[in-house]
Write a structure and sequence with these properties.
Length: about 240
């Protein structure tokens, strides 16, 4: 069985489509595991929701998903993010809203816990350092934890209660050590690489493979400008910031 693990699609249909094409090119995908923030920032919230829902999938809620349906407020968002949230909330159908409202904030699947931010703070906490990863350790009870939110692909490996951070290797063999893994962002990468980021978990080889894929950034940017979304959000896609 092969599971496509993605986070932070952020209404970027071109990036999401490129990721799906690349993932399916590697072999059949059993199920998508989505770590939240399907929408927000980008120009295609409805198409991204529909594309995800066309596939067998498990998804947890992200802060942008909840903000767009008014379940959390945007006072902690920067100006551009709040503007984009406001725009997004005006471009959702009732069915989209119902689907988003149904998403859990944390979910266990086999050996994995799926969460957007961190197991300690599912919607808001960024796990950017081993200290924050260690802080989350008591809050998940599966062997492994998959996180999004920072849009930075990274691995926090635990040895006992000690944690160290590394870049995602191209292939990670799952062993005895627990870890927290962020597959990076699909629709707005922030590790200074503009290519969309994703991983595939293969339960037969018991390994996780890491990929980056180019997509048509200029089409996404043109749609954003035409929609009146903040230019800063369109520009940052060029730089992966
Ligand atoms: Zn996000």
């Amino acid at each position: 069985m092969r599971y496509l693990i993605i986070a932070d699609i952020h209404s970027n249909l071109e990036a999401f489509t490129a990721v799906l094409r690349a993932a399916k090119g590697e072999g059949e995908i059993t199920e998508i595991w989505c770590l939240g923030d399907i929408i927000g920032y980008g120009p295609d919230p409805r198409s991204c929701l529909h594309l995800l829902r066309e596939h067998p999938h498990i998804c947890v809620a992200g802060n942008h998903d909840m903000a767009a349906i008014g379940k959390i407020d945007t006072s902690d968002f920067n100006v551009a993010a709040a503007l984009a949230t406001n725009w997004t909330s005006q471009h959702l159908s009732n069915e989209d809203i119902q689907y988003l409202a149904s998403l859990p904030i944390i979910r266990e699947v086999g050996n994995f816990t799926l969460v957007h931010g961190s197991p300690r703070g599912p919607l808001w906490e960024y796990v950017l350092s081993p200290l924050e990863a260690e802080g989350g350790l008591p809050y998940f009870h599966t062997k492994y934890c998959l996180i999004g939110h920072s849009h930075v692909p990274t691995l926090f490996m635990f040895e006992g209660n000690h944690c160290y951070q590394t870049m995602l290797p191209s292939t990670l063999l799952l062993g005895k050590n627990r870890f927290m893994l962020n597959p990076g962002g699909v629709g707005q990468p922030r590790d200074r690489d503009p290519k969309a980021s994703f991983v595939i978990y293969d339960s037969v080889s018991n390994s996780i493979m890491y990929y980056r894929v180019r997509y048509d950034i200029s089409t996404t940017q043109e749609k954003m400008i035409r929609s009146g979304l903040p230019r800063s959000l369109a520009n940052r896609l060029n730089y992966g910031t």
